[in-house]
Every structure is written in structure tokens, then in C-alpha cells.
Specification:
The chain has about 450 residues and is mostly helical. It is about 85% helix and about 0% strand. Belongs to the multi antimicrobial extrusion (MATE) (TC 2.A.66.1) family.
Length: about 450
Amino acid sequence: MNENFMKERPVLPLLLSMALPMVLSMLVNSLYNIVDSFFVAQISEDAMTALSLVYPIQNFINAVGIGFGVGINAVIAFYLGAGDSSRADRAASQGLLLAVVHSIVMTIGAIAVMPVFLRRFTSSETVIDLGLRYSAVAFLFTIVIVAGVTFEKIFQAVGSMKVTMVSLMCGCVANIILDPVLIFGLGPFPEMGMEGAALATGIGQSFTLAIYLVVYLVRPSRVRIRRQYLALDRKMVLKLYSIGIPASLNLALPSVLISSLNAILSSYSEVYILVLGIYYKLQTFLYLPANGIVQGMRPLIGFNYGAGEHKRVNQIYQIVLCMSGSIMILGTAICLIFPGQLMSLFTHTPETIRAGETALRIISAGFLVSAVSVTSSGALEGLGKGVPSLVISLCRYVIVILPAAFLLGKIFGPVGVWNAFWITEAVTAVIAFGVYRSSTRPQN
């Protein structure tokens, strides 16, 4: 295989070959999220509320794993583009070691914080009990999640998108099959309820990691984990964290946002907390496929940037922006036409469905312009410019939306909170485009 294919093949076919496998796997992952929530909702509405409250901590764990993985991916891609394979191996080896350390710390911290965290948002002992039962099992798989994500980013950095597609899809399919079996106790399996939902997720994630390990061991790869590179090198560690920390914060910020919005909405009714939780499950159908395109873009844009191919970098950015925008247009249409049907997948309570219809119609007004922020932030991460990417995410998840949600909520109630979403996306899109242009402007 031509090692320089990322800078020599035509941009559009190359991007499609890199992005489409990830889009497909992200769509399956989106389906898993919906199916998982659907089965949990069959336990009770309290169970779905508990899942919504646990979600920010789960998202934080995923954010740290994926964000640091983005740092590993960007550093590997840059050194491969520059023709320095030994440093690429060093980045992969030290990145994996640090990722394992992160996962151990997060496992202990997440389990310890959950009782206090849940009580901040609900006084229902039933909801708290369900949340604790789910999280106690789910968080035990943190090291599996983080190790799997690390190998995913290593494979993506060398262009092996089909490996990550197959691995992710197999894990998701296993999840989907095991959910009803373990939750409701089908066949010889006992009925495990919330613990079953968490265990199904963990087993699926373990399956994904197992496939990565088998492929890594039996198939040669341009990047290898090497024992002699495990001794931490200060410059390499700083380079990994300089990208990984902003990327992790980018992905963790939605947890801050959801927890803050839950606090605002809880003053009206727990119905709105449930609506917000359902919305974040539904929006994965849009943002995970868009993220799949961004994942296909990152190694390409990093490799070409390292090789000095700045014209190709701009071409890649523009094509990805158009592709993300197309996904967002489709999502907007679906939310406007079928909001009630979407909400009824997770609840049969008329009050909740009506509240959800209103929320989906209003929030979807910001989907299209959000493509600018998503693409710009992902491109900057691929270029190794973590701080400018973080600026975009801070605007999108904290600086603009939280004051807007608080003020509009005070004036208009829950409807004001939903309007804060599209207002934030419009404002952040302008900021994101400006940040991307200034950060990629050639230096004289």
C-alpha cells in the first residue's frame, strides 16, 4: 500500500473512502443508543430519567477517552506525514499507557461521585436507586472503553477505517442483541433490569476492544506499540496533552451543559429533564454521523498539514463542511415532520410527548448552522490546534448557551431554554468560522 496515499489521491474520493466507513459505524452506534434507551424506557419512565441523569458522567468518561485519543491520532498522523515513523510509534505507545492511567482514575472517581451527583438533580429515591444500580456496573468497564478508543484512533491515524468500522459495528450489534436478553431475562438469562442494560453495553464495548487487539496482533501496521517507547518522554507527553486536553474538554463540555440545563429545567418539572435526555439520545443520529465524517477528516488533514499540503487542507475542510451540512438538513426535516413519533419511542405520557414536540421543533432550527462549528472544531483538532478548537466548544456549550438558557428561561419558561439552542448555534457558527480562518492563516 502506498504510504503517501493521503496526500496523493484526489481529495473527494479519498475523503469518502475514509469517512463513509466511520459514518456507517456511527449510524449503527446511533441505532444502539436509541435501542438501548428504548429498552430502558420499557422498564419505567423513572428508569429513563435515571439514565438521563447518569448520562453526563458517562459522557465525561467517553470525552476523556475520545479526546485524548484525538490527541494521539493527531500526533501520529502529523509524524507519519512528516515521515518520522519512530516518533509515531512513540506517540502510540506513550498515549496508550497514559490512557490506561486515566481510565483507572476515572473508574474510582465516577463510582464515588454518583450518589452525591444524582441527589443534586432529583429527590426521588427510586430514580436515585436506578441510577446507582446502572452506573455501578457501567463504570467498571471504563478501562475497556478507553483502551478501545485508543486503538480506534491509532488505526484511524494510519487510514485503517474499515477496521474501526467493523469493530465498532460488531460491538454495537452485540449491544443491541444483549439489551433485551439481559434486561428482561430472555431464555436462560436472569432478568437484570438496569444492571442488565449496563452489562450489555460493557460486553459490547469489550467485544470491540477484542477485535482491535486481534487485528493489531495478526496484521502488520505502520504504527506499533513498542516496549522501549513506554518510558514517558516529556516533549511527547506535552504534545499529546496539548491536543488531548482541549479535545477532551470539547467533548466533556456537553456534560457540563446537560447538568446545568437539568438544574434550570428541574425548577419547572422533571418532565423537561426527561425531554432533554430524550433529545440528546435522538440527536446522536445527526451528530454521530457528522462526527464520523470528522473522524475521517482528522488523519487526512493532519497528514497533509504535516506534509505542507495547505491547499489540500482547505479542500478537505470545504468538502467536509458541505457533507456535514447535508446531514443536518435531513435531521432538521425529520424533527419538523415527525417530532411526536420520535418522542413516543421513549414515552407514552401525553404531557411529555407534547413538551418534546415543542422542544424538537425549536431546537432543530439550529442544526444546519451547527455544521460550521462541528467541522471547524474537528479540523482544528486534526491540525493539532487544540486551543482554538476549545474556544469554539466553550462558546457552544458554556459561554453563549448557559446565559441565554438562564435568561430566556426566566422570561419564557422551558420554551425559552429550547430557543437558546438555535440562538447559540447561530452565534457560535460566526465565531467558529472566524477562529478557523485566523488559526489557519499562513504565517509570514
